[in-house]
Design a protein that fits this description.
Layout lengths: L2 H27 L1 H9 L3 H35 L5 H13 L3 E5 L2 E5 L1 H49 L8 H16 L14 H58 E3 L9 H16 L3 H51 L7 H15 L3 E2 H19 L18
Parallel strand pairs: 3-4
Antiparallel strand pairs: 1-2
Length: 402
């Protein structure tokens, strides 16, 4: 090698040594690596981490030897010996298999370039594993923290309502298992496309939030039972009034419309009042959590009852509106038919009688009336389009708008 080539190769090797030193320092300082070492990884994470740790150990071993070779080259470079001999020696050190790498009981001789490539591979594998674990933890740890906060709330609420924590042991066990997986085997939750599967954590959150919600309801019952029951009874009284109005509307509609049959009005108020009485029994027994659950269910039931009554009222009023609409259409068709004069044919008269009977003689049959009106309309169209009949408006300059 020329002196210029030797200088370039030696500087390149020193630069590679500095870069590897920085990578090693980053790995040593990496928080995730320290957490992995302390957690005792298992499963898929353990397999990946053991391979990465072997790579880091080999990286340190190879780096130490690499540094020794660079030190040797630097000493030769500054030795001041015979120029040809020094150049030959440096050429061998810088390009030949000068790095003796002890590996698994044997020794492998690598050039500086080969050693550099090997160190890059070891550091990239280790850094990749650590980065993947870090990315998984960045998603999982906040969610796990939220679950653990919920669990703490459940414990506090249970004590406040005089409950037994043992009834939540299944949640404790589930949370402990999830926590162990998140901390010790996060890569088990990384899918093939690199996304993090948090479905198990989300299902646990649903169960924990449900339990916490029940306990919050129970605590509210402890603190404000009388006020809660009073508000609930007011809401039930309001629902009872709406039941009465809707039932009266249904009776009125039944007198006006027979087909389709008016929708029935279901009275759920007696059942709601029975449940309120059950609340008093639960209070007397100090069963606050069941009381809170029942109160929440009753609140939803009252709201659903009121909404159902509103829908039934709308349905019943719709029947009256439909009858009025059909009656209006019948009057409109009859007015058009009257313009035909006394020669109105029997088919028109028959269809009019059919529709009139369905709409005016007793409770209306809206289906029959709708069919009769359609037939009346068709007959009227045929009749006005046939060219027959007196007083029929004819085209021309003097024709009326009709």
């Amino acid at each position: 090698m020329s002196w210029e080539g030797i200088e370039e190769a030696l500087n390149r090797a020193r630069g590679e040594s500095a870069r590897v030193s920085l990578r090693l320092a980053d790995l040593e300082r990496n928080v995730a690596r320290g957490m992995l070492q302390g957690a005792g990884p298992v499963g898929r994470t353990r397999e990946r981490w053991e391979r990465a740790e072997r790579g880091i150990h080999r990286l340190w071993t190879l780096y130490a030897t690499f540094e020794e070779v660079i030190e040797q080259a630097s000493l030769l470079h500054g030795s001041g010996g015979d120029e040809i001999s020094v150049r030959e020696a440096l050429s061998h050190v810088l390009t030949g298999p000068s790095v003796a790498f002890a590996l698994d009981g044997g020794t492998e001789h690598l050039s500086l370039a080969e050693a550099t490539a090997r160190m890059s591979a070891y550091s990239e594998e280790a850094a990749g594993t650590v980065a993947e674990v870090e990315a998984a933890w960045a998603v999982l740890h906040p969610k796990l923290g939220g679950l653990e906060a919920l669990w703490q709330e459940i414990g506090s609420l249970t004590g406040m309502v005089g409950g037994d924590e043992e009834e939540h042991d299944h949640l404790r066990t589930e949370l402990a298992s999830l926590g162990d997986t998140v901390r010790r085997d996060p890569l088990a939750l990384v899918t093939a496309d690199g996304t993090v599967d948090t479905s198990g954590l989300e299902r646990a959150r649903t169960r924990l939030e449900h339990t916490a919600g029940e306990l919050r309801d129970a605590l509210r019952m402890c603190d404000s039972y009388d006020e809660s029951v009073e508000r609930l009874l007011w809401a039930i009284d309001d629902a009872e009034e709406k039941v009465g109005r809707t039932a009266a509307l249904r009776r009125h509609v039944a007198e006006a419309v027979a087909v389709p049959a008016p929708i029935e009005v279901v009275d759920r108020v007696p059942s709601l009042r029975e449940d309120v009485a059950e609340m008093a029994e639960l209070r007397a027994q100090g069963r606050w959590r069941e009381l809170g659950t029942l109160h929440g269910r009753l609140q939803r039931a009252v709201h659903e009852t009121v909404d159902d009554l509103a829908e039934r009222s709308e349905n019943l009023e719709g029947l009256l509106e439909r009858r009025s609409e059909l009656r209006g259409r019948l009057d409109d068709y009859r007015t058009r038919a009257a313009r035909l004069g006394p020669a109105e044919d029997e088919r028109l008269l028959a269809e009019h009688r059919r529709a009139h009977r369905a709409l005016w003689e007793g409770p209306a049959d809206l289906r029959e009336a709708t069919a009769a009106l359609s037939a009346y309309r068709d007959a009227l169209r045929q009749r006005t389009g046939s060219g027959r009949g007196s007083n029929r408006t004819t085209p021309g300059a003097g024709a009326s708008e009709g």
